Amino acid sequence: MFRAVLLMTCALLTATASALSADDPRRSAIADLLDADQFEPAAVLLDDYLADHPKDALMHYNAACADAQLLNIDAAEQHLRMAVKHGFLRFSVIQRDPDLKSLRSGEIFNSLVAARDAADGILAGRRNEQWLQRLKNGQYQLLRDRDRKIDLISALEPAAAQAAMIRIAELADTYVGFFDRTLRNSITIVLLTDVDAQVLFSNDRVRGNYRHAMRELIVSNPGRSLQHELAHAFHHNHMDAVGQEHPIWVQEGLASLFEAFDVDERGQVTFLPNDRQTMMKYLIAGDAFPARWAELLQCSTATFKRDAHQYYPFARSVFEYVAAHANMQDWYKQYVSLFDVDATGKAALVAELAAPLHESEAGWRLWVMSRDAAPAKEEYDKPATRLVTRSNAPIEVNAETFTDVDSSDSRTIIIERDMTVAAALYAELRPSILAGEYENAVDRLRAVIALDPDHADARYDLALACIQTGDNEGACEQYEHLRRLNMNLARMVRACLKPAS
Hints:
Largest sheet: 6 strands, mixed
Shape: globular
Oligomer: single chain
Strand order of the largest sheet: 4-5-3-2-1-8
Number of strands: 8
Helix content: 55-70%
Structural class: alpha/beta
Distance between the termini: 51 Å
């Protein structure tokens, strides 16, 4: 469940109302009720709270969760729209939250997700512009692989940056093959110089991270760290698509597994040992860490991260064993299909390895201890594609599918930073609307309205677009909304409808 966590994250929202209402004692009471799955009294208290704080995006979201659990679908959908309108833009949470399962097949839910897709270019442009402004030393440049929806910001020489993009494309294609899904939304990869990495990464052992809410992948190492974090990006993309939140051991186990692998001519992936194998042998040989599969499958995120030096090699080793004795991609498909029955992964392990869990664990222990020593870290921590720095001679690469652009081509020229996503998307549409190209603007106008149901100008333009395309019923629907929002615009639409009435 996400709602208990979300109640603690109002600082992430930009809505002023959330900050002003943070001390309201009803918030903690709502949190307690939701934690106890007391949805009916929670919904009543949420309605009372929102009457006083109607722009609190986080509480609208929690109201949507409560009403969805009570099957008050209309109320839940309205709260979800208000949450998005007032700043709750964590669409991955919306897509995966089990509390909202009853809404997923509805028009409102899917129109909100589609609206996020329509705004993807704007959000990617903002993200790239902000990074280029943050890294102001003038060395960083932007490359875009538009087909794969991947942007790269780096301080590499142009030829080296192209080589890095080719390597990233190869990795992306491998992950698409494994997860059987391309990226739905664009991501930005920021490849930092060593100096900038020391500033941005407070922990010297951290070489990268992926923040899915921001669609940002930050790395200082274009080898192992990039492979690990990019695997996270594609895994999160798939979790969004299937509406599932996989436990920490599955997320980090998969990402760690992709730290070292080969792909043959047929596209078959072979996972290779790395230094985590050596660590796993040490852990099994010692007495300090029991390494029981049942404990791994139930491990909390806090415990996993606290004892990361033990759990990362443990999770990777279990998946290496599955890959060596069965098929890792088949296991993942089994896991997704059985998720509603068993989210821990036990059922999928039993099914794929065709043995009870304790038998597979015993076989795994013998297998780990019988393996040869893993290669030294420096042997696999290098990128497969040699990258040149600004002081090296350039190399020749063939990168016809990549577009080199400067920061002025980030689609944010007309967009103010404090605009809402709906306002930014509408601003981007204005040239087409002013040119009378309504037919091409219909889907995006609907996306604006999904994000902001009270956007009168968008409803007016959509009404005109419907009239232009012969959809009088659609125009009448927008007219009824405009009667509530803006009578002047409503009258103009009515005047256009008169000849058809």
